Amino acid sequence: MYHLLPEAAFSSFLAVSPEWRGQGVSRALHAVRLHEVRDSGLGGLFADSVFAGRQPAEDREAEARTGTDAVIRRRALHALGYRTVDVPYWQPVGGPDGGPLADLDLLYQPLDGAGTVQTALAASTLRHYWSTWLGASRARQEAEALAERAGTYTLRLLPAVETPGYWQVPDTQRHLR
Q1: Whole-structure pTM value
Q2: At what angle do helices 136-150 and 119-134 cross, to 10 degrees?
Q3: What are the contacts of 116-119 at 24+ separation with CB within 8 A?
Q4: How confident is the model at residue 177 (pLDDT cuts 50, 70, 90)?
Q5: What is the per-residue pLDDT across 103-136, written as a single tens digit (0 to 9) for each?
Q6: With the C-alpha atoms ordered 71, 72, 77, 83, is the resulting torsion angle positive or negative?
Q7: What is the pLDDT of residues 48-89, one digit of tens each?
Q8: How far is CA 39 from the centre of its chain?
Q9: Could you give phi then psi for residue 71, rounded to 5 degrees?
């Protein structure tokens, strides 16, 4: 499931049942998505994905019971061409007590193979994507907050198996960045 938005696309889910894994099914499905993204005149495809190093143990255990694994998923996303956007990212709702989900990273697959993405493109795409469940006003606030946290016009793209630098500093020092 993915969404063609005004400036870029956003992938919500791509899953292949265990018995079909390793046979090129996800690569074929992803190729169709990329073709549609290109034909729509969009520059790339965003997604978010759990980073195993920040995933609570109970969530890892629950995933394992369903036959999925965050480490394997991120390797697969990297192989498909996604890269981690080097920005402090969290999904606004769904975490403990309705707070943000902070075990996710924002990913992006630029169709031109660039090593960066514009902060404005990421914020605008997320604003459109989040509007469906947050409403326009809250989605705009959250997207503006993401752009402010970025602190730059251009964001580096890292290997999809990595997490942004923000998460690599101790909790006590994050507020200083």
Answers
A1: 0.90
A2: 150
A3: 116/154, 116/155, 116/156, 116/157, 117/44, 117/85, 117/154, 117/155, 117/157, 118/153, 118/154, 118/155, 119/87, 119/147, 119/150, 119/152, 119/153, 119/154, 119/155
A4: very low
A5: 899 999 999 999 999 999 999 999 999 999 899 9
A6: positive
A7: 999 988 888 888 898 888 878 889 899 999 999 999 999 999
A8: 22
A9: -65, -45
